[in-house]
Amino acid sequence: MSEMVTCENLVKIYKTKETEVVALQGLDLTIEQGELMAIIGNSGSGKSTLLNMIGGLDRPSAGTLLVDGKDLLKFSEKDYVTYKRDTVGFVWQNNARNLIPYMTAMENVQIPMVLTSAKKRADRAKELLELVGLSHRRNSHLNQMSGGEQQRVAIAISLANSPKLVLADEPTGAVDTRTADAVLDLLRDVNRQLGVTIMIVTHDMSLSRKVDRIVAIRDGRTSSEFLRKSSYVDEMQHLDTYAAEAGEDSHVELAVMDATGRLQIPREYLQALGVKGKARLRVEMQDGKVVVYNPGEGDVEKMSADTVQP
Ligand SMILES: Nc1ncnc2c1ncn2[C@@H]1O[C@H](COP(=O)(O)OP(=O)(O)O)[C@@H](O)[C@H]1O
Ligand SMILES: [Mg+2]
Question: What domains, with CATH codes, occur in the chain?
Answer without folding.
Answer: 3-87+163-260 (3.40.50.300), 265-310 (2.10.260)
